[in-house]
Amino acid sequence: MKKWITFDLDGTLMQNPFDAWIFPEVETLLSEELKYSCDAKKRLFHAHQQMLRNEQIVAAYDWDDLVRQLIQELGLTREIDIEALVVTHSVEPKVYLLDDTVIPALRRLKEEGYDLAAVTNGYYKYQYPVMKALGLTEWLDVIVTPERTGYAKPNIRMLDSLLSEGELVAHVGDRLDHDVTIANQLGVVSVLIHRDLPEELLGLSPKQRADHIGLGPVLEGLAARENPQLAGMRLPQSYQPNYVIRDLEELFHCLDIKKR
Ligand SMILES: [Mg+2]
């Protein structure tokens, strides 16, 4: 019987190359051909957000298809291979781990007997090259992705195959709508990682932070960034994390870790 701990990737463990490298390159390629700036990054992100809002979550992360649609909208005929661009740009320091505690924490969890998996809404073909470059594939036993399972976070069906092999102890991630929500809906420990906590929360334990009034504005800010339509709205109960950590080292204050 496995004891899984699952991790989101982007914003939780690693920085992918899309924002800083791939979108700007797409922009350059298209603008050169058009002879004017087409604001590709903004348009792609807008299309992505729109699909998330329409609950087309699996499709929202198909960047090859989103770029193909943009090219068509612009009246161009060229092709851009996003998967190939990911491979090209998956080198440090273009991609990087989000802090120095990531690998030591994963190693320690493995030593403690946990089975670790990435649960990401990014497609395998875009995530694996980044994970490989950063040494994450060595520690994460399984990579769960939407195009392989047919489901995306926060749909709990995404974790069916992991759960058939064991129990899920906790899920760690940086998004309320996808990560905290999927954990809460499964009734497992939800751990929000947020590296920019306000001063008043820093001295508290991960559990105390989750219960502290000062977390309210942090959650509201995150929710509004994930979905601008949630700005000023009362947040769903499923957005409330059980623990709030600022790095992976603090995960050990959330789990009752015993050697098996
Ligand atoms: Mg994330």
UniProtKB/TrEMBL annotation:
GO terms for molecular function: hydrolase activity. The keyword Lipid metabolism does not apply. InterPro entries: HAD-like_sf (IPR036412), HAD-SF_hydro_IA (IPR006439), HAD_sf (IPR023214), S-2-haloacid_dehalogenase (IPR051540). It comes from the Bacteria. The keyword Hydrolase applies. Keywords: Hydrolase. NCBIfam families: HAD-SF-IA-v1. PANTHER family: HAD FAMILY HYDROLASE, HYDROLASE, HALOACID DELAHOGENASE-RELATED. This is Haloacid dehalogenase superfamily, subfamily IA, variant 1 with third motif having Dx(3-4)D or Dx(3-4)E. It comes from Paenibacillus uliginis N3/975.
